[in-house]
Amino acid sequence: MLVISATAALWFLPPVLMVCLWVCFTDMKYMRILNKAVITLVAIFVLIGPFVLPLGDYGWRLGQMLAVLVAGIALNAGGAVGAGDAKFAAAAAPFIHLGDLRFVMALFAATLLAAFASHRLMRATPMRKLAPDWKSWETGSRFPMGLALAGTLALYLLLGALYGATPV
């Protein structure tokens, strides 16, 4: 059982899933996570969060977003992550209950491995002809990390809706 409220995860899931699909597509096609997608993700949390989270939790989650943004800026300045990846991670942070952090890190590791293997496999086969103009096919060792980041957020909310905490 996850710590996130099943109700909150269920309310967040549909609009967040649409943004996650958008991020996966644009990162694979253009190797970019658009600012519009990041802003949309933040707007979803800001608009729905107060209705599905206790007010104290809502404030702390906004603090999580700020902390991840600061860490992401530092990692980007050091060349460890892309700017879009850092911004997306910050926008995704408030959707994650701090009590589920260890689970989310394991989920991210598994999702990253699956996304990387799938992307590389598709890139090496004739299947890539289905999307011949995608920039991610031609970037050498670079990888569209938005595929793994967005996949992790979508899976977490889906699992939260199915196995999250229920009110007593």
Can you give me a brief rundown of this structure?
GO terms for molecular function: aspartic-type endopeptidase activity. The protein has 6 helices and no strands.
Helices and strands in order:
Elements: H1 6-30, H2 35-52, H3 55-77, H4 83-92, H5 101-123, H6 146-163
Protein name: Prepilin peptidase CpaA
Organism: Alloyangia pacifica
GO molecular function: aspartic-type endopeptidase activity
Characterise the protein shown here.
70% of the residues lie in helices and 0% in strands. It is mainly alpha-helical and 168 residues long. It has one domain. Helix 1 (6-30) runs antiparallel to helix 2 (35-52). It is globular and about 50 Å long.
Poorly predicted tracts of residues: none
Q: Please, how many domains?
A: 1
What fraction, in percent, of the residue positions are helical? 55-70%
With helices defined by DSSP (H or I, 4 residues minimum), what is the helix count? 6
Helix-strand sequence:
HHHHHH
What is the straight-line distance between the termini?
14 Å
Number of strands: 0
Strand content: under 5%
The main sheet comes to: none
Please state the average pLDDT score: 96
Return Rg in Å: 16 Å
Helix-strand category: mainly alpha
Shape: globular
